[in-house]
Amino acid sequence: KYLICNNLIIWKVLALLDECNSNPLGLQPIDFIPAVPQRLTDERNDKEISVVIAASDERLGGAIAAMNSIYHNTKSNVVFYIVTLNDTVDHLRLWLSNTALKNLRYRILDFDPRVLEGKVQVDPQKADPLKPLTFARFYLPSLVPHAEKAIYVDDDVVVQDDILELYNTPLKPGHAAAFSDDCDSTTNKVAVRGAGNQYNYIGFLDYKKETIRKLAMKANTCSFNPGVFVANLTEWKLQNITKQLEKWMTLNVAEELYSRTLAGSITTPPLLIVFYKQHSSIDPMWNVRHLGSSAGKRYSPQFVKAAKLLHWNGHFKPWGRTASYAEVWEKWYVPDPTGKFSLIRRHSEAYEAK
Ligand SMILES: *[C@@H]1O[C@H](CO)[C@@H](O)[C@H](O)[C@H]1NC(C)=O
Ligand SMILES: *[C@@H]1O[C@H](CO)[C@@H](O)[C@H](O)[C@H]1NC(C)=O
Ligand SMILES: *[C@@H]1O[C@H](CO)[C@@H](O)[C@H](O)[C@H]1NC(C)=O
Description:
Bound molecules: 2-acetamido-2-deoxy-beta-D-glucopyranose
Pfam family, one: Glyco_transf_8
Main location: membrane
Largest sheet: 8 strands, mixed
Number of helices: 14
CATH topology: Spore Coat Polysaccharide Biosynthesis Protein SpsA, Chain A
InterPro entries: Glyco_trans_8, Glycosyltrans_8_dom-fam, Nucleotide-diphossugar_trans
Number of strands: 12
Family: Belongs to the glycosyltransferase 8 family.
Shape: globular
CATH superfamily: Spore Coat Polysaccharide Biosynthesis Protein SpsA, Chain A
Subcellular location: Membrane
CATH class: Alpha Beta
Number of domains: 1
Strand order of the largest sheet: 1-4-3-2-5-10-7-11
Distance between the termini: 54 Å
CATH architecture: Alpha-Beta Complex
Helix content: 25-40%
């Protein structure tokens, strides 16, 4: 029965769900706000553009700015699928309904971290707690079960052009996703301090391990950034991508297959394996990244202006104390009506008035 419903192995984990129609993962659509004024819906093209974003409480302002920028730069009928943990739902709902964002169409999906049991190493020594929502992207077909195509974006981006263009990225037959390669331009190559080259496979995977060597993947292959991608969910399901990703997560727990100097996200290595030479490309301007890799400015203002999507991956987030081009990001930020989230700024007085 599980297999008929859905190929995801999580059906076994959460066997409490006994209906094919119910969502796996304990993902419950909590909110759906179709109450957009008629005039607006008419202006906007009918075809739904599904955009999936993960929103964790401690950086909720990021997801807010990302959604605001996407919404304001398109005439398309964008619907956001916001994946979050159950204790963030109320906060998020207040933020979205009491501000300029109230016309946004969205659905809040509650991610049950138990899905990850046995698939991620829980190391009590590590200061960094596990961030379960970073794995939400592995489960795309269960998040937007009706969609054939969907976009996934991280919460540390802003979009400066029409997301429809990204959505229309062509995917080659047999490809389940399109990513932007890390060596598609010199600006995207970045040497992470103490971690060597993080733009090819050897920067992410431990090539000393037999299991990795047996895959015969060239170590100098360009890696790609999984923070922004377009997916063909029909193809994703056909190839059981989710199940493949879970297999590599589980294997990593047993064999530690990721590079020990891994500086990027731990969601990257399984994606690199599963999509090795099996993905299409997105326009590099749709993922201008590393704005958060250092506090300094790595791009000219002209280049930043021309970018279609800006991505503050790295430690220096635009809602934090120091970040490059934080003012560009802040144009899209909508203050939290509950006051729980606030920007950390050197001149905090400037923000107190609000
Ligand atoms: C959230 O989920 C966890 C585990 O799934 C549960 O223990 C907790 O009670 C839930 N919290 C709320 C506020 O629903
Ligand atoms: C998605 O993949 C399916 C199966 O390969 C294919 O039939 C369909 O045309 C693809 N759709 C898009 C939008 O690329
Ligand atoms: C995907 O899983 C289904 C059911 O487990 C199986 O029949 C099918 O062969 C798998 N497809 C691939 C490409 O592994």
